[in-house]
Design brief:
By secondary structure, the protein is mostly beta strands. About 10% of the residues lie in helices and about 45% in strands. The strands form 5 sheets. A 5-stranded antiparallel β-sheet has the order 5-3-8-1-10, with helices on one face.
Length: about 150
Amino acid sequence: MRRALLGEIEGTCITRAKSGKVPHKYSTIVGIEESVHEILINLKEIVLRSNLYGVRDASIFVRGPRYVTAQDIISPPFVEIVDTTQHIANLTEPIYLCIGLQIKRDRGYRTNPTNNSQDGSHPIDVVSMPIRNANHSIRSYGNGNEKQEILFL
């Protein structure tokens, strides 16, 4: 039951990010406190909700200095951001941050290749599990010869 909950239930997540001025994911951008790698990790942690299949596009377009959160993601109307306060980046100078995002509904955990694709986008390890942790316990109850068990998830 635990394996089915963690690995087989589908979820929606960000699978790819693209910014025109970033050569590789370990670079830094002047005016942004976080490295590109840290921004990709922050994007990976954003929890999304959607019932539609296929790849959808979203974007972030903000001007600093400011604190960038999940609320700044411009997404299709059928994709809901569960926690809009999740941190993405901190812009410390008056620069523009433009990131194109791909959103996909899938199941389980998939790692992406470490190299960038031809278009300069950066793959994000896909964690499409809407349930991140599952615990269970079994309780027996009953009287006499009749015993029953209850499964708590």
